[in-house]
Amino acid sequence: MDRLIEQFFGEQVPDSTNSQNPPTYYLPVDIFETDEAYTLVASVPGFKEDQVEVTFEDEILTIKANAEGHKLPGRWLRQERPYGSFVRRLEVPAQVETAKIGAHFDNGELTITIPKTAKPKPVKIQIGTGKKELAAKA
């Protein structure tokens, strides 16, 4: 049940009032499916390619990005842009080619392509007369 809730509402978010540990934010994604692959698109505006990490382990795709809080002299009058960790973990079906997973980062948008494995084609099995073959083996 926890996994289902996490898929729809995101991960547990720590108390953002604790300044020692920056909060963790849910990273929304769009997911598309074709006959050949799954495609995930995540917006990560304000991040550079080297600040975003994509991993795949045990059928779980994880996207992480970290934003440091701004340290400027003076006091904040308003701070609306979030900082901290942005994370999304998604369970991926087992029938994918993990070695061919690719990620592309362009202008704050991360696109991940997960190719599906080829579906097995039906095989026609010859039907023999069983009696002759069984008698020959005995």
How would you describe the overall organization of this protein?
With 138 residues, the protein is mainly beta. The chain has one domain (2-15, 25-71, 79-118): Immunoglobulin-like. Helices cover 11% and strands 36% of the residues. A four-stranded mixed beta sheet has the order 1-6-5-4, with no helix packed on it. A hairpin with a 3-residue loop joins strand 2 (29-33) and strand 3 (37-43).
Strand content: 35-45%
**What's the main sheet like?**
4 strands, mixed
What's the number of structural domains? 1
What letter string, H or E per element, gives the SSE order? Answer: HEEEEEEEEH
Total count of strands: 8
**How many whole angstroms does the radius of gyration measure?**
24 Å
| Strand order, largest beta sheet | 1-6-5-4
Query: Please, how many helices?
Result: 2
- Helicity range of the residues? 10-25%
SS class: mainly beta
CATH architecture annotation name? Sandwich
What CATH calls the topology is Immunoglobulin-like
What keywords describe this structure?
single chain; 138 residues; mainly beta; Immunoglobulin-like; four-stranded mixed β-sheet; four-stranded antiparallel β-sheet; 2 helices; 36% strand; rod-shaped
